[in-house]
Design goal:
homodimer, about 500 residues, three-stranded mixed beta sheet, mainly alpha, globular, 2 domains, 20 helices
C-alpha cells in the first residue's frame, strides 16, 4: 500500500498466519450463509446449522488462543502511533475484546435468545401482537445491556458500546447531534413536499419487465459502474444482499417485480455499490484485521451513493435510457420526465424498507431515539409500542394501524442488533459528503455520467475509500477523503436541490 | 436403525461430538468445492485455496487429537464383535490410521506433488508429450509407494493399501481374479459384436434438444426415480458429479449437448443414482463414522444401476418415450427401435470416458493391470506409454495415435489417485448382482418400469444398501443383499442378453 501512513514494520508472520485462518473460517461461514439464501435445498437447514456451529466454534477457539492475544500485544509494543501496524493492533484488539471480555455463558445465552427472539418476532408480526414478542425482546435487551457492561471502557455508555459493533468509534452523543440536526432540517422539507401542488405519477415505472431482461439490464449497468463479474456474480434471493470472500469473490443477490422495474434495478445498483467497495479493498491487507470495510456506515455510503446519487440522477438516465429501451423495447411509456420525479418522491409512509429517499432518514431517527432511550434506562420494552406510535405521529405525521405496521416491522431487534439502524443514515450522510468532495476534485461528473463514464468516480472512491480498508476509523476516513468531519450539510443540500427540481419548492 | 446387528451401546457422546465436528468440516469443504465447480467467479481461486487449506488443517488437527484416538479405543473395548459399535470403531480407525500413520511431511509433499502433477499433466496432454508429465508422475508414484509403506498392515501389498482408500477391505488379488475373469469373458463378446452384421445407427439420438427442455425432462425422470428436489438440486458444471452434505442436501451437476440428448440425460441419471444413495443414507448415523457410503464401488453401483440397468432398458423407454415426446415435440425421429441398439453399442474405442457400456470395462482392466505392475515394481513410469499402447492393442485391438489419446487421457494419476479405476468396474458388477437380486425379490420389474413405477426398486435398494451406510464393508454388504459373494456372473449374463437382443449374436 502506498497510500496512508508509512508501511513500517508489519505484524509478525505468525500473527498473520493465525489471523488469516480466522478470516478463512469467517469466509467459509459466509459462503455457507450465501448458499443458504441462494441455493440450499429447503430441507438442508438442519445439517447446515450444525456445520455453521462447528465453524463458529473453531473460529471462537482460535480467537481465544492466548498466543494470539500475546502476538497482538507484542505488535502493540512495536507499533508507532498512526502506523499501519497500530491500525492492525486497533482492529485486532476490537475483535478480540468482544471474544475475551464476553463470558462464554453470555455468548451462548445471546445465541439462544436470538433463536427464540426471531421465532417470537415472526409469530408476533404475523398476528400483529407485540405481547407475543415482549418477553423475548425484554430478554434480548437485558443481554445486550450485560454485553455492553462487559465491553464498556473509557466512559462509554451502553448504547455507545452497541453502536461500536457496527460503527467502530461512533459515540451516541455525536450520532445523536447529527441525527437531531438532520431531523430538524428534514421535517420542513417533507412538509413542503406534501404541500406542493405537483406530485409524481405513481405508474411512471410500471409495465411488463421480464425477469431475464431485468437481469441483463441491471448487469450491464453494474458492469458500467465497474463491477467485475470475473470477480463476482449475482443470484436471486428472497432479500437482496452482498457477501464477499475477499476482493476476488463478491456475490450480489437481487429480487424483482415484473410489473415495476424499480425494486430489481435499484436493488442491484445498491448491492453493486457494496460490491464495488468489496472488490476495491486492499489485496495486500487481505486476511489481516484491516483488510475489511471501515464500518457499516461507510459500506452503506457506497451502496447509497451508486444507487441514489448516481442511479437516480438525470445525467445517469440520459445515458441509461437508450440502454433501457433496448432491453425493454415495449416499455415506451417510461420516460425521464415522469420517471425522475417518481424516483425522488417525498411522501411520509409507515414502513421503513418501503420508504422513499426523501423520508427514509426520519424512520431511522425514530429508531435511534427509541434505542437510545431503551439503553439509557429511560424507556421500558413494554412501553415501546406506545412510544413507537407516538414517535411516528410526531415525526412522520402517521399512526400505524397495528404493531405489524409499527414496532414489529423490522427484523433487527429480534436478532439482538441494537445500534444498527443509525448506520443507514450515516451511509446517506457519508455518501453525500464523499460525492460532493468527488465533484470538487473531478469537476462535472454529470457530463461523464451522461456518457456512461463512471470510472473517474469509481477511481476516486477506490483511492479515497476502498483502498484504505479499515486502516482509519470511519470518522478519520471521511475527514481525510473530504477534508471535513462528517456533517449533514451536503446531504441536506442534495435534498433541497431535489425538492426544488421535482417539487418546485425552495426551503 | 432397526436393520442390521442389534444396536447395543453406541459410542460415547464426547466421541460423537468430536466426530460430528470432523464431518461438519468435511461438509464445509465439500460445499466450497461444489461452489468452486458450479458458481465461483473465475478469479476466486486464490482465496478459495487458502480457505480450503485452513479447513483441511483444522480437520487434520481434530483428527490428530489424542483424545479422539483414546475415545475410539475406549469404544473398541466395549464393542461386541459384529455390533454397530464395532463398525463405528472399524471405520473410525480406518480414517485415523491415514492421519496418524502418515507423517505430516509426507502429506504435505503429496499435496505439493498433486498440484505440480496436475499442472504437468495438463501441459503434457495439451502437447501429447508424456515426457512433460513423466517426472511429476514418477514423484507421485514414489510418494504413493511411501504412503503405502506407512499404512501397510496384515501383509497387504502396496497396491492393496492404495485400493483400500477407495474400496475399503478390497485386495488386489481378489479384484485381479474378478477383473481377469471378466476380461476373458468380455473379449469374445466384443469380437462377436464387431463381426455381427447389424450395427446401431449413430444418429438415433441426434436432433435439436434445447438445454431448458433437456433439464426439465431429466429432472422429471430423476423425480420419478425418487430423487427428492426438496433435499437436493441440480446445476450445470464442466464435469458431472454428485456431492452431498448429509442426506438432506444432495447436489447433482450436469452438462449437455444440444445436438444429442444422451450426454445430458444419462449424465443426470448417473448422478441421480449417486444422489439416491446419499439421500437414503441412515439419518440416525449422520455425522458418525458409519453414516457414509460403504465404498466407491458401491456408490458407483447405484449410479450405474439407475443409468444403465434402468435408464437404458426397453421397459424404461416404454414409459419415458411419451414424456420425452412431450418435452421434445420436434424430435419425431427418436424412436426405441433405433435408439435402444445405440444405447447398447459394443464398439472398441480409445477414450474411456467416451466408451460404450459394452467395452467400458476393458478400459478399466488395462489400467488395473498397469497400476498393479507399477506398484509391484514390475513396471517403471518411463515404460508406461509403451505398456499402455501395447495393452490397448491387445485388449481393444486399437493403438492410440498419440499419448493424449493414450496414457495421458485420464486425470486420476495426476491427482495421485492410484487404485481408483477398479471401482468403476466393481460398480458395474455390484449393480448387476444387486439388480438380479432385486428382480428375484420383486418379480417383474420391467412391468413396473413401463408404468413409471420405480419406487419398489428404490425401496429395495434403500433397505438392502442405502440404509446400512458403512455398517458393513462392501463385500459383506453385497453378500447380505444378494446372498452371494461378488462375481461377474450377473453382469456377464446381462451383457450376453444385450448382445443377443441388439446384435442377434449368442456367445
Amino acid at each position: 500500500m502506498s497510500a496512508g501512513p508509512g508501511a513500517g514494520a508489519g505484524p509478525e508472520p505468525r500473527f498473520l498466519a493465525l489471523w488469516g485462518e480466522i478470516e478463512d473460517l469467517s469466509d467459509a461461514s459466509g459462503l455457507l450463509a450465501w448458499d443458504q439464501e441462494t441455493h440450499m435445498p429447503p430441507h438442508g437447514h438442519g445439517a447446515r446449522g450444525k456445520i455453521q456451529a462447528t465453524l463458529a466454534g473453531v473460529r471462537h477457539a482460535k480467537l481465544c488462543a492466548p498466543e494470539l492475544s500475546e502476538l497482538v500485544e507484542r505488535c502493540a509494543e512495536r507499533a508507532a502511533p498512526g502506523s499501519v501496524l497500530a491500525a492492525q493492533v486497533r482492529e485486532a484488539r476490537r475483535v478480540l475484546r468482544r471474544v475475551t471480555r464476553v463470558p462464554e455463558r453470555l455468548a451462548r445465552e445471546r445465541a439462544e435468545a436470538v433463536t427464540l427472539g426471531h421465532a417470537a418476532w415472526s409469530a408476533a408480526r404475523a398476528r400483529a401482537d407485540f405481547a407475543l414478542f415482549e418477553p423475548a425482546l425484554t430478554r434480548l435487551v437485558e443481554l445486550a445491556r450485560e454485553q455492553a457492561r462487559c465491553l464498556a471502557e473509557d466512559g462509554a455508555s451502553a448504547y455507545d458500546v452497541l453502536l461500536d459493533e457496527y460503527e467502530p468509534g461512533a459515540r451516541a452523543s455525536t450520532v445523536g447531534l447529527l441525527l437531531g440536526e438532520l431531523e430538524r432540517a428534514l421535517t420542513p422539507l417533507v412538509a413542503a413536499a406534501s404541500e406542493a401542488s405537483v406530485a409524481p405519477a405513481p405508474d411512471a415505472a410500471a409495465g411488463r419487465f421480464p425477469v431475464e431482461r431485468q437481469l441483463a439490464f441491471a448487469r450491464s449497468v453494474a458492469e458500467s459502474f465497474g463491477f467485475d463479474f470475473a470477480r463476482g456474480r449475482i443470484d436471486p434471493a428472497p432479500h437482496p444482499f452482498c457477501s464477499a470472500f475477499g476482493p476476488d469473490d463478491v456475490r450480489l443477490t437481487w429480487r424483482w417485480d415484473e410489473s415495476d422495474f424499480r425494486p430489481g434495478l435499484f436493488g442491484v445498483l445498491h448491492e453493486t455499490g457494496h460490491g464495488l467497495y468489496e472488490q476495491g479493498l486492499p489485496a495486500a491487507w487481505q486476511r489481516t484485521p484491516i483488510g475489511e470495510a471501515a464500518s457499516l456506515g461507510v459500506h452503506e455510503s457506497q451502496s447509497r451513493l451508486w444507487e441514489n446519487l448516481v442511479g437516480r440522477s438525470p445525467a445517469f438516465w440520459r445515458w441509461a435510457l437508450p440502454l433501457f429501451q433496448r432491453h425493454f423495447p415495449g416499455a415506451r411509456e417510461v420516460n425521464p420526465e415522469r420517471l425522475l420525479p417518481l424516483l425522488h418522491s417525498v411522501r411520509p409512509s409507515l414502513i421503513r424498507v418501503e420508504a422513499d429517499q426523501g423520508t427514509y432518514d426520519l424512520h431511522v431517527c425514530v429508531r435511534f431515539r427509541l434505542e437510545r432511550a431503551l439503553f439509557a434506562g429511560e424507556l421500558e420494552v413494554r412501553d415501546l409500542p406506545g412510544a413507537w406510535d407516538e414517535a411516528y405521529r410526531r415525526t412522520l405525521g402517521l399512526t400505524p394501524r397495528d404493531a405489524a405496521q409499527g414496532v414489529l416491522q423490522d427484523i433487527h431487534w429480534s436478532m439482538g442488533a441494537f445500534g444498527y439502524f443509525p448506520t443507514y443514515t450515516l451511509g446517506n450522510l457519508i455518501a453525500a459528503q464523499l460525492f460532493a468532495a468527488a465533484r470538487r476534485d473531478l469537476g462535472d461528473l454529470d457530463a461523464a455520467f451522461a456518457l456512461g463514464e463512471f470510472r473517474p468516480l469509481l477511481e476516486w472512491l477506490r483511492t479515497h475509500v476502498h483502498a484504505h480498508g479499515s486502516l482509519y476509523t470511519a470518522d478519520e476516513l471521511v475527514r481525510r477523503a473530504t477534508g471535513r468531519v462528517l456533517t449533514s450539510d451536503d446531504y441536506l443540500a442534495l435534498r433541497r436541490a431535489e425538492l426544488a427540481e421535482y417539487y418546485g419548492v425552495a426551503v
